[in-house]
Structure formats: structure tokens, C-alpha cells
Amino acid sequence: MPLNPKELREKNVKELLDQLKELQSQMLRLRAEARLGTLKNTAAIRNTRKDIARILTVLAEKKKGKTKQTASQPSSKQEAKQ
């Protein structure tokens, strides 16, 4: 079952990074099974790849959100000019 982006956004960065490492190792295992010809569910590779992309997207959103918050706060120099 694909990961829900709403649930991913509720997790903290450490949990997302742990889940990302887990999915990357799962992807490696699935690719090896595909090469050996023992993989039964070939859609698992695509689903895992998409889950990795979802996590990376949420991580990028969190990083961008943090920089946006600090950028939106006026600095003391700007306040002094006004």
C-alpha cells in the first residue's frame, strides 16, 4: 500500500530519514531479485520507487518551510530602517 503524504508530513525528519533508508535497502533487494528472476511482484519496484520520491518530497517541503519561516521574519536592520 502506498504511503500517505498526509501521514508523512506529520512525521519528524528523523523518522522520515529512517523510513527512507529502509525503503532504499528494500529497493536494492527488489532489484537484485528482479535480476535473479525470483521477483514475483514486479510492481513492488515501482511502488517502492514512488514511496521514496514521496518521502524525498516531504523532506524538501520541510526544509523549504524552515527557510521560509526564517526568511519571512524581518531582520533587526530592516526594522531599524522603518
TrEMBL record:
Biased composition (Polar residues): 68-82
UniProt keyword annotations, A-Z: Coiled coil, Ribonucleoprotein, Ribosomal protein
Tagged with keyword Coiled coil: yes
Coiled coil: 6-33
InterPro entries assigned: Ribosomal_uL29, Ribosomal_uL29_CS, Ribosomal_uL29_sf
One MF term in the entry's GO annotations: structural constituent of ribosome
GO biological process: translation
Disordered: region residues: 62-82
GO cellular component, one term: ribosome
Listed Gene3D superfamilies: 1.10.287.310
CDD domains named among the record's database cross-references: Ribosomal_L29_HIP (cd00427)
UniProt-recorded name of the protein: Large ribosomal subunit protein uL29
Organism name: Stygiolobus azoricus
